[in-house]
Write a structure and sequence with these properties.
Strand content: 15-25%
GO molecular function: metalloendopeptidase activity; zinc ion binding
Protein name: Peptidase M10 metallopeptidase domain-containing protein
Keywords: Hydrolase, Metal-binding, Protease, Zinc
Radius of gyration: 19 Å
Number of helices: 6
Organism: Arthrobacter nitrophenolicus
Bound molecules: zinc ion
Largest sheet: 8 strands, mixed
Shape: globular
CATH topology: Collagenase (Catalytic Domain)
Number of domains: 1
Number of strands: 10
Distance between the termini: 27 Å
Structural class: alpha/beta
Pfam families: Peptidase_M10
């Protein structure tokens, strides 16, 4: 999520620390994360970029009445699942792309979610990540922002993105991760929506955008993101784009949110784009790039 924030004055504390962490931790146990803060610390741009993991901490459920085969905990046959596509759609035997190794080492990154073995939760690099854009309210001059940011994130992670075109789908915190009628028998594509606070209440007030992904696992097994959402407050972004360097800020917002979608959390290092407050939006820094590189090593998942 991205919020514009009230003007800072002396004594204002950055919106980081326990407040944010507790929101995130709590939300991971519930349905969705709406909280957090990343400020574009520019005297003109007062935005907070927040993170969302949603719509849920999805897990496969055993078939009603139990599993006749008795292998409780094992992945269910596709036909036994409710609300999940046939597994392995477009999943290759090896990663589709190769992430660009970061030029500079840095451990200044954090993951939104990790598995029991400490590995970060990311998307399978062995299948493309499809995305759709609800561009009904896309501001003039924004046409290249999303594709350019996608290309940057793809290079950093090695994840292959496929643009499936525009959609009329509206963002929703309860967005089903599987929508066969709309998108066929696969996980729903990442939804990038130019929208408004009226449609997306999490954009109310100073919020300018939200971003996050939904992870899926079988009964305590490793989690993998299967779909996500990135909502942009179109009126606020349009206003931003009126400025001569507005595209730089807009790009920073989208890159920050896409990094949340991929699995990065905020850091306390002000040199990183994932810092809760940034000065000039210089794009991804060494920590961000190293984190995204690690996310590109996520497990391949023919079982999802
Ligand atoms: Zn953020």
């Amino acid at each position: 999520m991205t919020e514009s924030r009230p003007p800072r004055h002396a004594g204002d504390a950055p919106r980081t620390g326990l407040g944010y962490r507790s929101v995130l931790a709590g939300a991971l146990l519930l349905a969705a994360v709406f909280g957090g803060a990343l400020a574009l610390d520019d005297p003109r741009v007062k935005h907070l970029l927040d993170v969302r993991i949603g719509p849920g901490n999805q897990q496969a459920k055993p078939r009603e009445g139990g599993n006749p085969s008795g292998d409780a905990g094992a992945p269910q046959p596709a036909e036994a699942r409710v609300g999940t596509p046939p597994p392995g759609h477009e999943e290759a035997d090896s990663p589709l792309g190769t992430p660009v190794p970061p030029a500079v080492g840095s451990d200044s990154y954090r993951f939104l979610a990790v598995n029991g073995d400490g590995s970060p939760v990311g998307y399978s690099p062995c299948r493309p990540l499809h995305y759709v854009v609800n561009a009904d309210l896309a501001p003039a001059g924004s046409e290249q922002l999303v594709p350019d940011a996608i290309a940057t994130i793809s290079a950093a992670t090695g994840i292959s993105f496929i643009y499936d075109g525009t959609t009329g789908e509206q963002p929703s915190p309860q967005r089903p991760p599987y929508q066969p009628d709309a998108y066929g028998e696969r996980w729903a594509p990442l939804l990038i929506a130019w929208t408004t606070p009226e449609v997306a209440p999490q954009l109310a007030g100073k919020v300018i955008g939200t971003g996050g992904s939904t992870h899926f696992s079988y009964d305590g097994g490793p989690k993998t993101f299967v779909t996500g959402g990135l909502d942009l407050d179109a009126p606020q972004m349009a206003n931003e784009l009126l400025n001569p360097d507005g595209h730089l800020y807009a790009t920073a917002v989208i890159l920050h949110e896409l990094s949340h979608v991929m699995g990065l959390d905020h850091v306390e290092d002000p040199r990183q784009l994932m810092y809760p407050e940034i000065g000039t939006p210089e794009g991804l820094s060494a920590g961000d790039l190293n984190g995204l590189y690690e996310l590109g090593k996520a497990q391949c998942r023919k079982d999802l």
